[in-house]
Design goal:
By secondary structure, the chain is mainly alpha-helical. It folds into three domains: about 70 residues; about 100 residues, Orthogonal Bundle (DNA polymerase, domain 1), CATH 1.10.150; about 40 residues, no CATH class. Helix content is about 60%, strand content about 0%. The radius of gyration is 27 Å and the shape is elongated.
């Protein structure tokens, strides 16, 4: 009981630090979820799981305001929780198809390379946010960053947090921000391009293709052109 009480006290202190940082930067009214998180500071018997979730909520709010979360002190001689090993466990569970595993593994490897270490317990929200921003700055679309890179690492940390292998889910509710990609290719084709395609369709087909393919090459472009002109 004494250890659990000390753990709660430590979590409340951590939440209080985040709240004090927020007060120094913004006096605006808190959203309901952040207000509920602050209320837990006063509850001596609050559940540790609730405090951890409250810390993640407050960190997410601070992140949107550009407030850098403090580095958490590491417990001396604490065992390293390998990010790579966490993903290997997820891959071995069969929860994702092989194609997704291969694509997400590359994203996890890129994250570890960006961090220059493989310790999940040492990762902060600022680390994760900085990596996502660097990916967008490198030219990747926000859709790619969101759907592959963020998704892969976020899944690893969610499972690790749910299983009690890390103290917090640093990837929870993390947004990917970046410029919208400008569309450079038009949907239609010019009259000259259409004429070139239809003229090519009338040319003799090679002798090494089947009759059905040759007929398709000749008539499909014309049928499409006729249908679009109606």
């Amino acid at each position: 009981m004494a250890a659990e009480s000390a753990a709660r006290k430590e979590k409340r202190a951590e939440l209080r630090i985040l709240w004090n940082q927020r007060k120094m930067t913004s006096t605006a009214m808190l959203p309901p979820e952040q207000a509920a998180a602050v209320d837990l500071i006063k509850q001596r018997e609050a559940k540790i799981e609730e405090l951890e979730q409250a810390i993640a909520v407050m960190e997410a709010g601070n992140e949107k305001l550009g407030i850098r979360s403090p580095q958490r002190p590491r417990i001396p001689n604490a065992p390293t929780v390998s990010i790579t090993a966490l993903f290997d466990d997820y891959a071995a569970s069969g929860a994702a198809v092989p194609h997704t595993v291969a694509k997400w593994r590359a994203a996890v490897v890129a994250f570890v390379k960006h961090l220059d270490h493989d310790d999940a317990a040492a990762v902060t929200r600022a680390d994760f946010s900085g990596w996502l921003k660097a990916l967008v700055a490198s030219g990747l679309s926000t859709r790619t960053v969101r759907g592959t890179y963020r998704a892969a690492v976020a899944r690893v940390f969610k499972i690790a947090f749910d299983d009690g292998r890390v103290a917090q889910n640093v990837a929870a509710a993390m947004e990917v921000r970046g410029p919208k990609r400008v569309k450079t290719k038009r949907d239609d084709i010019s009259d000259d391009e259409a004429k070139a395609i239809l003229s090519a369709a009338l040319e003799p087909q090679g002798s090494n293709i089947g009759e059905h393919v040759a007929l398709a090459r000749r008539w499909v472009p014309w049928i499409c052109a006729y249908a679009l002109s109606i």
